[in-house]
Amino acid sequence: QQQVKQSPQSLIVQKGGISIINCAYENTAFDYFPWYQQFPGKGPALLIAIRPDVSEKKEGRFTISFNKSAKQFSLHIMDSQPGDSATYFCAASKEAAGNKLTFGGGTRVLVKP
Amino acid sequence: ETGVTQTPRHLVMGMTNKKSLKCEQHLGHNAMYWYKQSAKKPLELMFVYNFKEQTENNSVPSRFSPECPNSSHLFLHLHTLQPEDSALYLCASSPGTTSTGELFFGEGSRLTVL
Fold it and tell me: Is beta strand B10-13 parallel, antiparallel or unpaired with respect to B31-37?
C-alpha cells in the first residue's frame, strides 16, 4: 500500500515558468513532509521541508504548500531554470517512528530553455 | 572524503555470486540506512541502524544481509540474488533516529543481477 502518492510522473516546463508537483498522504500521523531533489547519477538531497503547524514555507524559488485537512502538500518551483531539471520526491514521516521516510514515486521535471 | 561515500558505484553479478556494497559516512552521524530505488517504484526503506544496532528491517529477504561494524560504516552483503533485485541501492545517514530530520544520501550503487 503506497502511503504517499505523487503526481505527475513527469513534467515539462519552459524556462521562467512554474512547476507544480502534488502529493497526497493517507496516514494522519505523519508530521514531517520533506521534498528531495535528485540529479542523474546522484543521490537525493533535501530541498525543503515543512511540518503541519504551518500552511506554507518558502525558500528562494521553492515553496511548499500544505493542506492538512485534505492530506495534501505540493511543491511549487517559481521561475523554473534549466538547472532545476531533476527528479523530485515528496516524502513523509512521523516523529514517533523516528527518521523513517515514506517516499512518493517521484516526478521527473524537465525545464526547457 | 566528505559526506556519504558508496562503493562500488556499479556492480554486475550472477545469481550465484556473493558480493558486498560498502557505505562510509564522514558526517559524525549515528544512524545509517539502506534504501532501494527501482525504476517506476518509490524509494523503499530496507534497513536502519542506530549506534550500530539494527532498529528496522522492512521485511527484506534474507539474501540481503546488512552489517554495521561502527557508526561510520555500513555494508550490504548480497548472495543468491534474483534479477528483480537489480536496482540502485542508496545509503543514507542522519544524526540519529529519535526525531525526524534530514537524510544525507550517497550517490548509490547500481546493481545489475544477470
Answer: unpaired
